[in-house]
């Protein structure tokens, strides 16, 4: 019966994490490696990837670093070549890379919208396409797989200062469902799900808090955090990267074998209210 | 993923998702209280777990009986010190159109599927508010979307979904270290589904099955063990920042 637990792991699998140089991406790369996966630690910041991969290797886990600009089709093609040479496998893709641009909607510019759409949405399209081509039964690697797209609770609800960011996360939510249903209907053996963190203690979380100050909702960042904890997050704390990484591991592993097209909200109860 | 030192209570644990959940929780190291109204089925699961070297005990529980809830939880605390995990799983389903549903049938479904979740959750909170815990209420995709032939079941599972959010917020507001989440399986190959189908004529059962399968992008029903794994995840500290959330496991049914 111990076998029933092994499905929560990633033994023998190859996982790619984008935006893995910091924050949630780094935590996911580490937990995936600890769960037994060979992890491609990818980010536009190669130095960060190399540091994290080296650290994981030193601890006896399997990891490799790669510079990946998620908006570059050529980089995604290169990733497939590298994976083929490395393990000749690809089982898990965590589309995590993304940016935050806040501000009042009236002050947002078309240039900002184009930029955030490219990095937060188009990248997920490119990554999902590359992964599906590689993972689907009967293809290059052909083992099936699991794709996890980082959305946000801002892809589910409205938040002041979050219009253009939230719109990208709503798009990720929707792209997830369409690709999940398509891949399932056509027997790809590839599951696709979206993960919706609440406010997490990361550099991006700090940016969001600062934005509440900039648009005049609160006087300072401390007040923003205090208000969130006391009035908006039922559990009374911001999330941490491990909270999210453990949920990502569940979606990545075979423990979620019948789960596709869902939204997994990990927000301390924020959206339940 | 470890539930060592945790005490878990599963209702409707004699068959199907409940049984599979007991096995999953036990494999993760929990001491499992297998409860069911059916003594034979429940004892079989507990005995089987004990033979496999796991810690399990059977306690008979009619989930609709307020007094029995009190006795069972008191008994668990007396024997094992505390209760950390409650899986409100017991449930029934009846396939029929709303025009053919009787008030007695409506009440039976809602009593077992919804009232019982209230009784169990209330009893568990009384214990867990000190020691901490995780409550998983087994709702259904039928608590999120409708089915023309499941009026009472739809209503009861929708109630579980909303009740879960209410209790999650209540516990958080009170500062109780208790997480409460709902689990929404799609169609699963279990006695609940086969039992409901067996009460239909062969042609109606076939039509219902074909309609369901055509609605599942993955093209198959789930195995009970697949659902159990999601429940074990929610029960564990891996779901540390999840409360008032819904975990759907439906092969893509509600994503359509």
Overall description:
The complex is a heterodimer of chains A (273) and B (256). Chain A has a single domain, classed as Rossmann fold. In chain A, 47% of the residues lie in helices and 14% in strands. Chain A starts with a helix and ends in a 7-residue tail after the last strand. Chain A has helices spanning 3-6, 23-34, 46-58, 73-86, 110-135, 163-185, 203-214, 221-232, 241-252, and strands at 14-17, 38-43, 63-67, 92-95, 145-150, 190-197, 263-266. In chain A, helix 2 (23-34) packs across helix 9 (241-252), helix 4 (73-86) runs parallel beside helix 5 and helix 5 (110-135) runs parallel beside helix 6. In chain A, strands 3-2-1-4-5-6-7 form a 7-stranded parallel sheet, sandwiched between helices. With 273 residues, chain A is an alpha/beta fold. The model of chain A has no long low-confidence stretch (mean pLDDT 96). Chain A has 9 helices and 7 strands. Chain B is of the alpha/beta class and 256 residues long. Chain B has a single domain (7-191, 223-246), classed as Rossmann fold (3-Layer(aba) Sandwich). Chain B is 49% helix and 14% strand. A 7-stranded parallel sheet of chain B has the order 3-2-1-4-5-6-7, sandwiched between helices. In chain B, strand 4, helix 4 and strand 5 (133-138) form a beta-alpha-beta unit. In chain B, helix 1 (16-27) crosses helix 8 and helix 3 (66-80) packs parallel to helix 4 (103-131). The longest helix of chain B has 29 residues, at 103-131. Chain B is globular and about 50 Å long. At the A-B interface, helix 6, helix 9 and strand 7 of A face helix 1, helix 5, helix 8 and strand 7 of B.
Based on Cα principal axes, name the global outline of chain A. globular
Count of individual domains of chain A = 1
- What is the end-to-end distance of chain B? 32 Å
- Can you tell me the number of structural domains of chain B? 1
Number of E strands of chain B: 7
Q: What oligomeric state do these chains adopt?
A: heterodimer
Total strand segments of chain A: 7
N-to-C SSE string of chain B, H for helix and E for strand: EHEHEHEHEHEHHHE
What CATH first level of chain B would be assigned?
Alpha Beta
Q: CATH topology of chain B, what is it called?
A: Rossmann fold
Classify the beta-strand content of chain A into a percent band.
Answer: 5-15%
In helices, the fraction of residues of chain A equals 40-55%
Widest sheet, order of strands of chain B = 3-2-1-4-5-6-7
Give the topology string of chain A: H per helix, E per strand.
Answer: HEHEHEHEHEHEHHHE
């Amino acid at each position: 019966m111990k076998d029933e637990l092994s499905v929560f792991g990633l033994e023998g699998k190859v996982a790619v994490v984008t935006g893995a140089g910091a924050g949630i991406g780094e935590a996911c790369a580490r937990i995936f490696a600890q769960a037994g996966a060979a992890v491609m630690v990818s980010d536009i910041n190669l130095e960060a990837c190399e540091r994290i991969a080296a650290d994981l290797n030193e601890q006896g886990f399997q990891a490799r670093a790669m510079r990946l600009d998620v908006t570059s089709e050529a980089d995604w093609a290169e990733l497939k070549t590298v994976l083929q040479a490395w393990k000749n496998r690809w089982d898990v893709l965590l589309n995590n890379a993304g940016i935050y641009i806040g501000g009042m909607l009236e002050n947002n510019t078309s240039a900002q919208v184009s930029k955030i759409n490219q990095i937060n949405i188009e990248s997920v399209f490119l990554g999902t396409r590359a992964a599906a081509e590689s993972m689907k039964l009967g293809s290059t690697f052909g083992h099936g797989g699991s794709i996890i797209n980082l959305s946000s609770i801002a892809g589910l609800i409205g938040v002041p200062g979050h219009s253009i960011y939230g719109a990208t996360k709503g798009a990720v939510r929707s792209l997830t469902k369409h690709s999940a249903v398509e891949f399932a209907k056509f027997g790809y053996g590839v599951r696709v799900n979206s993960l919706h963190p609440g406010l997490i203690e990361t550099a991006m979380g700090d940016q969001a808090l600062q934005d509440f100050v900039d648009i005049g909702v609160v006087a300072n960042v401390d007040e923003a955090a205090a208000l969130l904890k006391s009035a908006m997050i039922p559990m009374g704390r911001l999330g941490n990267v491990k909270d999210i990484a453990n949920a990502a591991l569940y979606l990545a592993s075979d423990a979620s074998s019948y789960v596709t097209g869902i939204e997994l909200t990990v927000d301390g109860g924020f959206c339940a209210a | 993923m470890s539930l060592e030192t945790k005490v878990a209570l599963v209702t409707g644990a004699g068959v199907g998702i409940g049984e599979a959940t007991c096995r999953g929780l036990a494999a993760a190291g929990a001491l499992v209280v297998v409860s069911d109204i059916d003594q034979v089925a429940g004892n079989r699961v507990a005995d089987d777990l004990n033979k496999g070297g796991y810690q399990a005990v059977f306690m008979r529980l009619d989930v609709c009986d307020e007094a029995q809830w009190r006795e069972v939880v008191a008994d668990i605390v007396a024997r094992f010190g505390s209760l950390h995990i409650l899986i409100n799983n017991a449930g029934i389903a009846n396939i029929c159109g709303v025009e053919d549903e009787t008030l007695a049938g409506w009440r039976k479904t809602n009593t077992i599927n919804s009232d019982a979740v209230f009784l169990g959750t209330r009893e568990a909170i009384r214990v867990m508010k000190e020691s901490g815990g995780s409550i998983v209420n087994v709702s259904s995709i039928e608590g999120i979307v409708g089915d023309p032939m499941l009026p009472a079941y739809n209503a009861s599972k929708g109630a579980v979904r909303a009740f879960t959010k209410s209790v999650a917020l209540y516990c958080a507001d009170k500062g109780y270290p208790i997480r409460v989440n709902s689990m929404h399986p799609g169609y699963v190959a279990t006695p609940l589904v086969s039992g409901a189908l067996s009460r239909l004529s062969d042609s109606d059962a076939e039509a219902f099955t074909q309609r369901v399968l055509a609605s599942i992008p993955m093209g198959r029903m789930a195995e009970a063990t697949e659902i159990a794994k999601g429940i074990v995840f929610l029960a564990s500290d891996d779901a540390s920042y999840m409360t008032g959330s819904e975990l759907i496991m439906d092969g893509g049914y509600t994503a359509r």
